[in-house]
Specification:
homodimer; 460 residues; mainly alpha; MgtE N-terminal fold; CBS-domain; Tetracycline Repressor, domain 2; 3 domains; three-stranded mixed beta sheet; 22 helices; elongated
């Protein structure tokens, strides 16, 4: 989808539109729809009864149809394609921006993909295949080929003329790229530059030459981050030979950022990422995404079990200790989760880099000690005065519990903070080192501590 | 910060810049810096030794200085202000975009704020005070007052002239707003519209009148979401009387989205949100943000403890049961966390609304049953064949454990999915209903189940 200047969107009256359809006032319907933002029209289609969608879609003007189609949910798109003739499909796909076409193909079953490609113009097919050839989640896979090219020898007037002639079907007319005969990127000019420059000025003299550009194989997340950092409207993408092959616009960068944040959250929750909205994923897909980590974490909980078994005898005599196990393990998990998730987010925002490990360590050490002491004291008071009869034997138990808690909190926070950095350091995704994983490790550590401290103080 | 067309940013040679400074080649340094993106220059300043920052900053040209200043980390900003004369401060603050000025004031201690306001031009001060009067995180608090206004009676040529005359110090020249004598918003025209329209066409005939605009008190998150949904470059903000008072640009929307995602993640990790980067928050701030939830969750873990105490006798005779408690509670927590965090994210992306509660319930029911059965079977095999001697007594124990696990997973996922929706329904923030909170509830439920099932099958 291109950055939007034509529409503003928002308010539309679903009832009124339906009424127009029911009363067969198709021309009025078409006019009304032309006024609306394609995003809203797409939403309206999503709400139409499935059997009506195709018929109503045929009412749209050619250009509107393509714009609306690009915004439809993939299930509606598939339904419409099934209802379309080969010719209709060809018209739509040739009209789509190449990045939208690629997204569409990515979501359609292979039979539909074949049919779409068969009916696309040869040049469209070539362009789509070119984009499809780039690795998933790369700059090449999210860029679009529709950008403005100028030559450095042009005058401002000629440049503006060129933009008028060639600009209409481009993703944006606000940034144009200056390339040489080999299409190598030489500079960039904004329409603002042109607006404020003298008509006879030469592009070469006003173009910006210190350009950040992405290469086709850069990670889409990196590109989005750069667009956000420099507040760019659009980022040029060059191939290995430095030839300009596409652009990524800020609106696509926003979508990428949203996707990546969702993916991080899913990983933090020990879910394998599925890039479909929750209600659009099938039950089996969801189960497949959730079971693996549950199993892995369950198996690793064996260690915790083993520790308890080892201390079975002690627990037999001091059953009271058992009552505090969940609280200790829970607090450890929460404390560790807090630091791990903070560090994971900071890493993915680039606020923390693996090089900061010592600063992080030093900070978490102080934070965890303070948190630990507060928690320990609170626990001591609670355990001794509320949970148990305040007698001398229980004084020791309370001491054991609260002492364990202090050390657990410190350990948990250090583990939680360091694991993600370590994982990032070796080039893996830190997001998996969040609460669930950290908790499992901390559970074992805290119990081990608990029993060690207990055997020391209670002389088990 | 305005959407960036002037700069492309990226590559700059820190060593070279430092060398220029050390060799006192200040004019060359200034030229080089002029070529760079203010974001990069700000980064360079952040890395300079603190005592050099002020002196080097004085080398910058007036406009560059303001642009760079807006991009500096707040601690650097504060240091520079302390080193500046009242006149210098006045120049900077009058040159800042109003939204950047407001952000700056938000991060400075009150003494500095007083000093800044004292030295700002009266009109700047008025504008800043106007923006400061809007609630935190509202559209009014993130908008900027520098936007282009046109009259509907103008011709395209006149409009372009007006933009040339007034556009240079505006946040964007690509979208202009048509207002009446009372500054009420009547329409919007993009520079693209003007570029492709006939020179003598009247603005009224080409302007877009179906406009979504935010009101000053809308939540910044809503505005950002709309900008992202409609791929807008900029969103107009009107006051209660429908007068155009500001605009929010896509780059600010991106920052808002990033902030909000971070805030959600912090809440999911049971942390009180702090809107500063991790390494910029003091130890005490971090502790204050983390301890409250740790305490609350610890206290609520008392319930779990009470349940165990209640079954102390049983545990005394069947100590083996204790060994599986961490695994059951852990799996329950993880299973619940998976669904709660998925639903929380879907809610904040608007993919799920409270009205979908039945669809969610039905989906989670099937998902959790499948997950539960898989986990239960795996556990049975593991517990019976690996953890214990495969004898008839342990057959029942294995049955108890795996049966508990099945029910726990189902319960955990239902609780995890429904809690956030319920909380959203009553108008609170669902993000707090994530793993830590869900885990605490599920811990208690699963243990209760465990012991109930145990007493049934083992006849405790």
């Amino acid at each position: 989808m291109s950055v939007n200047y034509e529409y503003t969107g928002g308010a539309y009256d679903e009832e009124a539109l339906l009424a127009l359809l029911d009363n067969r006032q198709y021309s009025v319907f078409m006019q009304t729809v032309e006024e609306l933002n394609p995003v809203d029209v797409a939403e309206f289609f999503g709400r139409l009864p499935e059997e009506r969608q195709a018929a109503v879609f045929r009412l749209l003007k050619k250009d509107t149809a393509a714009e609306v189609f690009a915004e439809l949910e993939s299930d509606v798109q598939e339904r419409l394609i099934h209802a379309m003739s080969d010719r209709e499909i060809g018209v739509i796909v040739d009209d789509l921006f190449s990045d939208d076409a690629v997204t569409l193909l990515g979501e359609m079953p292979s039979s539909v993909v074949k049919r779409i490609m068969k009916n696309a113009k040869p040049e469209t097919r070539a362009e789509i295949n070119r984009l499809l050839s780039y690795p998933e989640d790369s700059a090449g896979s999210v860029m679009t080929g529709e950008f403005l090219e100028l030559r450095k020898s042009m005058t401002v007037t000629q440049a503006v003329e060129t933009i008028r002639k060639t600009g209409l079907d481009k993703e944006t007319v606000y940034v144009a790229y200056v390339t040489d005969a080999q299409r190598r990127l030489e500079g960039v000019v904004s329409l603002k530059d042109l607006l404020f420059a003298a008509p006879d000025a030469i592009i070469e003299d006003i173009m910006e030459t210190n350009i950040t550009s992405a290469t086709t194989h850069d990670d889409q997340e990196t590109v989005a981050a750069a667009i956000s950092k420099y507040d760019l409207l659009v980022m040029p993408v060059v191939d290995m030979e430095g030839r300009l092959v596409g652009i990524v616009t800020v609106d696509d960068a926003m979508d990428v950022m949203e996707e990546e944040a969702t993916e991080d959250i899913e990983k933090m929750a020990a879910i394998l990422p599925t890039d479909k909205p929750y209600l659009k994923t099938s039950v089996s897909e969801t189960v497949k995404a959730r079971v693996p980590w549950l199993l892995i974490l369950m198996l690793s909980a064996t260690v915790t079990g083993a520790i308890i078994t080892h201390y079975e005898a002690a627990l037999g005599t001091w059953v009271v200790l058992t009552a505090f196990m969940p609280m200790i393990m829970g607090t450890g998990g929460n404390a560790g989760g807090q630091s791990s998730m903070t560090i994971i987010r900071s890493l993915s925002l680039g606020e923390v880099v693996p090089g900061d490990v010592l600063r992080v360590l030093w900070k978490e050490l102080r934070v965890s000690l303070l948190c630990g002491i507060v928690m320990g004291l609170a626990t001591f008071v609670k355990v001794f005065l509320i949970d148990l009869h305040a007698d001398s034997a229980n004084l020791i138990v309370a001491a054991v519990v609260s002492l364990t808690l202090v050390v657990t909190v410190v350990l948990a926070k250090l583990v939680g903070a360091l694991l993600p950095i370590a994982v990032k350091k070796v080039g893996l995704d830190p997001a998996v080192m969040a609460s669930p994983f950290v908790t499992t490790i901390v559970d074992a550590l805290s119990l081990l501590l608990y029993f060690k401290i207990a055997s020391l103080l209670l002389g088990i």
